[in-house]
Design brief:
The chain is an all-alpha fold and 205 residues long. It is elongated. The protein has 11 helices and 2 strands. The chain starts with 9 loop residues before the first strand and ends with a helix. The model has no long low-confidence stretch (mean pLDDT 90). Strands 1-2 form a two-stranded antiparallel ribbon. Strand 1 and strand 2 form a beta hairpin. 27% of the residues are buried.
Length: 205
Protein backbone atom coordinates (compact mmCIF):
# COMPACT_ATOMS: atom_id res chain seq x y z
CA UNK A 1 0.00 0.00 0.00
CA UNK A 2 1.05 3.58 -0.64
CA UNK A 3 1.01 6.15 2.11
CA UNK A 4 -0.65 5.79 5.51
CA UNK A 5 -4.05 4.53 6.59
CA UNK A 6 -6.00 7.64 7.53
CA UNK A 7 -7.00 8.26 11.15
CA UNK A 8 -9.58 10.73 9.90
CA UNK A 9 -11.39 9.42 6.78
CA UNK A 10 -12.34 11.45 3.74
CA UNK A 11 -16.13 11.69 3.83
CA UNK A 12 -18.01 11.49 0.53
CA UNK A 13 -21.12 13.43 1.49
CA UNK A 14 -23.28 12.50 -1.49
CA UNK A 15 -22.53 8.79 -1.13
CA UNK A 16 -22.41 8.86 2.70
CA UNK A 17 -19.17 6.89 2.53
CA UNK A 18 -15.73 7.12 4.14
CA UNK A 19 -12.36 6.58 2.46
CA UNK A 20 -9.31 5.60 4.52
CA UNK A 21 -6.54 5.00 1.98
CA UNK A 22 -5.32 6.02 -1.47
CA UNK A 23 -6.23 2.53 -2.70
CA UNK A 24 -9.82 3.08 -1.58
CA UNK A 25 -9.84 6.37 -3.51
CA UNK A 26 -8.58 4.52 -6.60
CA UNK A 27 -11.25 1.87 -6.18
CA UNK A 28 -13.96 4.49 -5.72
CA UNK A 29 -12.94 6.53 -8.75
CA UNK A 30 -12.55 3.45 -10.93
CA UNK A 31 -16.16 2.46 -10.20
CA UNK A 32 -17.79 5.87 -9.85
CA UNK A 33 -15.80 8.50 -11.75
CA UNK A 34 -18.50 8.78 -14.43
CA UNK A 35 -20.83 10.18 -11.75
CA UNK A 36 -18.55 13.16 -11.06
CA UNK A 37 -17.03 16.16 -12.77
CA UNK A 38 -13.78 18.09 -12.38
CA UNK A 39 -14.96 19.71 -9.12
CA UNK A 40 -14.39 16.37 -7.35
CA UNK A 41 -10.68 17.31 -7.25
CA UNK A 42 -10.94 19.94 -4.52
CA UNK A 43 -8.79 21.49 -1.79
CA UNK A 44 -10.28 19.27 0.91
CA UNK A 45 -9.41 16.07 -0.97
CA UNK A 46 -5.88 17.24 -1.72
CA UNK A 47 -5.31 18.34 1.89
CA UNK A 48 -6.56 14.95 3.12
CA UNK A 49 -4.13 13.13 0.81
CA UNK A 50 -1.30 15.33 2.11
CA UNK A 51 -2.10 15.27 5.83
CA UNK A 52 -3.81 11.94 6.50
CA UNK A 53 -2.14 9.71 3.92
CA UNK A 54 1.27 11.36 4.08
CA UNK A 55 1.49 11.57 0.29
CA UNK A 56 2.82 15.09 -0.01
CA UNK A 57 4.34 14.72 -3.47
CA UNK A 58 1.10 13.31 -4.90
CA UNK A 59 -0.88 16.11 -3.24
CA UNK A 60 1.39 18.72 -4.83
CA UNK A 61 0.86 17.18 -8.28
CA UNK A 62 -2.91 17.18 -7.78
CA UNK A 63 -2.80 20.79 -6.64
CA UNK A 64 -1.35 21.74 -10.04
CA UNK A 65 -4.18 19.83 -11.74
CA UNK A 66 -7.06 21.22 -9.65
CA UNK A 67 -9.26 23.73 -11.45
CA UNK A 68 -7.92 22.92 -14.92
CA UNK A 69 -9.94 21.37 -17.75
CA UNK A 70 -10.22 17.57 -17.49
CA UNK A 71 -8.91 17.68 -13.90
CA UNK A 72 -10.67 14.41 -13.07
CA UNK A 73 -9.18 12.57 -16.05
CA UNK A 74 -5.71 13.99 -15.33
CA UNK A 75 -6.03 12.89 -11.71
CA UNK A 76 -6.83 9.35 -12.78
CA UNK A 77 -3.77 9.36 -15.05
CA UNK A 78 -1.69 10.54 -12.08
CA UNK A 79 -3.09 7.80 -9.83
CA UNK A 80 -2.41 5.23 -12.56
CA UNK A 81 1.23 6.29 -12.72
CA UNK A 82 1.84 6.72 -8.97
CA UNK A 83 -0.26 4.11 -7.19
CA UNK A 84 -0.53 1.14 -9.54
CA UNK A 85 -3.70 -0.16 -7.88
CA UNK A 86 -5.15 -1.04 -11.28
CA UNK A 87 -3.33 -1.99 -14.43
CA UNK A 88 -3.04 0.38 -17.37
CA UNK A 89 -5.63 -1.50 -19.41
CA UNK A 90 -8.19 -1.17 -16.62
CA UNK A 91 -7.57 2.56 -16.18
CA UNK A 92 -7.72 3.11 -19.93
CA UNK A 93 -11.07 1.33 -20.04
CA UNK A 94 -12.40 3.63 -17.33
CA UNK A 95 -10.98 6.72 -19.04
CA UNK A 96 -12.71 5.65 -22.26
CA UNK A 97 -16.01 5.50 -20.39
CA UNK A 98 -15.37 8.99 -18.99
CA UNK A 99 -14.79 10.39 -22.47
CA UNK A 100 -18.01 8.77 -23.69
CA UNK A 101 -19.86 10.38 -20.76
CA UNK A 102 -18.56 13.88 -21.54
CA UNK A 103 -21.62 14.64 -23.65
CA UNK A 104 -23.99 14.00 -20.73
CA UNK A 105 -25.72 16.96 -19.16
CA UNK A 106 -25.54 17.67 -15.43
CA UNK A 107 -29.07 16.30 -15.13
CA UNK A 108 -28.15 13.06 -16.88
CA UNK A 109 -25.14 12.61 -14.61
CA UNK A 110 -27.27 13.27 -11.55
CA UNK A 111 -29.80 10.70 -12.73
CA UNK A 112 -26.97 8.21 -13.30
CA UNK A 113 -25.83 8.81 -9.71
CA UNK A 114 -29.36 8.33 -8.37
CA UNK A 115 -29.82 5.19 -10.48
CA UNK A 116 -26.55 3.88 -9.06
CA UNK A 117 -27.84 4.40 -5.51
CA UNK A 118 -31.05 2.60 -6.44
CA UNK A 119 -29.14 -0.29 -8.01
CA UNK A 120 -27.10 -0.63 -4.80
CA UNK A 121 -30.22 -0.62 -2.58
CA UNK A 122 -29.48 2.82 -1.10
CA UNK A 123 -33.12 3.85 -1.37
CA UNK A 124 -33.13 6.94 0.86
CA UNK A 125 -30.09 8.40 -0.87
CA UNK A 126 -31.57 7.59 -4.29
CA UNK A 127 -34.87 9.22 -3.37
CA UNK A 128 -33.12 12.37 -2.13
CA UNK A 129 -31.15 12.58 -5.38
CA UNK A 130 -34.28 12.08 -7.49
CA UNK A 131 -36.05 14.78 -5.46
CA UNK A 132 -33.32 17.31 -6.26
CA UNK A 133 -33.31 16.26 -9.90
CA UNK A 134 -37.07 16.67 -10.12
CA UNK A 135 -36.77 20.28 -8.96
CA UNK A 136 -34.09 20.94 -11.58
CA UNK A 137 -36.05 19.55 -14.53
CA UNK A 138 -38.40 21.56 -16.67
CA UNK A 139 -42.07 20.62 -16.98
CA UNK A 140 -41.52 20.03 -20.70
CA UNK A 141 -39.10 17.14 -19.97
CA UNK A 142 -41.99 14.74 -19.59
CA UNK A 143 -40.17 11.46 -20.30
CA UNK A 144 -37.35 12.24 -17.87
CA UNK A 145 -39.76 13.41 -15.16
CA UNK A 146 -41.88 10.29 -15.63
CA UNK A 147 -38.79 8.08 -15.15
CA UNK A 148 -37.83 10.04 -12.04
CA UNK A 149 -41.30 9.65 -10.52
CA UNK A 150 -41.32 5.96 -11.38
CA UNK A 151 -37.95 5.36 -9.71
CA UNK A 152 -39.03 7.34 -6.67
CA UNK A 153 -41.95 4.93 -6.48
CA UNK A 154 -39.53 2.00 -6.55
CA UNK A 155 -37.57 3.59 -3.69
CA UNK A 156 -40.76 3.98 -1.65
CA UNK A 157 -41.88 0.38 -2.30
CA UNK A 158 -38.56 -0.96 -1.06
CA UNK A 159 -39.05 1.05 2.11
CA UNK A 160 -42.60 -0.38 2.47
CA UNK A 161 -44.07 3.12 1.97
CA UNK A 162 -46.85 1.88 -0.28
CA UNK A 163 -49.11 4.94 -0.07
CA UNK A 164 -46.22 7.20 -1.09
CA UNK A 165 -45.25 4.72 -3.80
CA UNK A 166 -48.75 4.76 -5.29
CA UNK A 167 -48.56 8.58 -5.47
CA UNK A 168 -45.26 8.51 -7.35
CA UNK A 169 -46.38 5.80 -9.78
CA UNK A 170 -49.58 7.76 -10.46
CA UNK A 171 -47.52 10.90 -11.10
CA UNK A 172 -45.29 8.89 -13.45
CA UNK A 173 -48.28 7.62 -15.39
CA UNK A 174 -50.00 11.02 -15.52
CA UNK A 175 -46.77 12.65 -16.71
CA UNK A 176 -46.11 10.14 -19.48
CA UNK A 177 -48.55 7.25 -19.78
CA UNK A 178 -46.91 3.84 -19.74
CA UNK A 179 -48.16 0.41 -18.77
CA UNK A 180 -45.44 -0.41 -16.24
CA UNK A 181 -46.09 2.66 -14.09
CA UNK A 182 -49.84 2.02 -14.16
CA UNK A 183 -49.45 -1.62 -13.08
CA UNK A 184 -47.10 -0.56 -10.29
CA UNK A 185 -49.63 2.09 -9.25
CA UNK A 186 -52.41 -0.49 -8.91
CA UNK A 187 -50.09 -2.95 -7.17
CA UNK A 188 -48.91 -0.44 -4.58
CA UNK A 189 -52.55 0.56 -3.93
CA UNK A 190 -53.40 -3.09 -3.35
CA UNK A 191 -50.50 -3.42 -0.90
CA UNK A 192 -51.82 -0.44 1.08
CA UNK A 193 -55.54 -1.39 1.14
CA UNK A 194 -57.70 -4.14 2.52
CA UNK A 195 -59.09 -6.49 -0.16
CA UNK A 196 -62.52 -4.84 0.15
CA UNK A 197 -61.07 -1.31 -0.12
CA UNK A 198 -59.18 -2.33 -3.23
CA UNK A 199 -62.28 -3.87 -4.84
CA UNK A 200 -64.23 -0.70 -4.04
CA UNK A 201 -61.51 1.39 -5.64
CA UNK A 202 -61.57 -0.73 -8.80
CA UNK A 203 -65.34 -0.52 -9.06
CA UNK A 204 -65.30 3.26 -8.61
CA UNK A 205 -62.56 3.73 -11.23
Amino acid sequence: CCGKYAKIPYFLKEEFQNLYSIEELCYYLYNNAYLHDDTFICDNLIQWIHDELGLGELAERLLLIKGKPDALVKTMFTLMEDIGYYGQDEWNEMLGILKEQNHLTVQEKRKARADNFLHNNKYTMAADEYEVLLKETDESQIKLRAKIYHNMGICAVNQFLFERASYYFKEAYDTYANTESYIQYLTSLKMNMTPQEYLNFLSEH
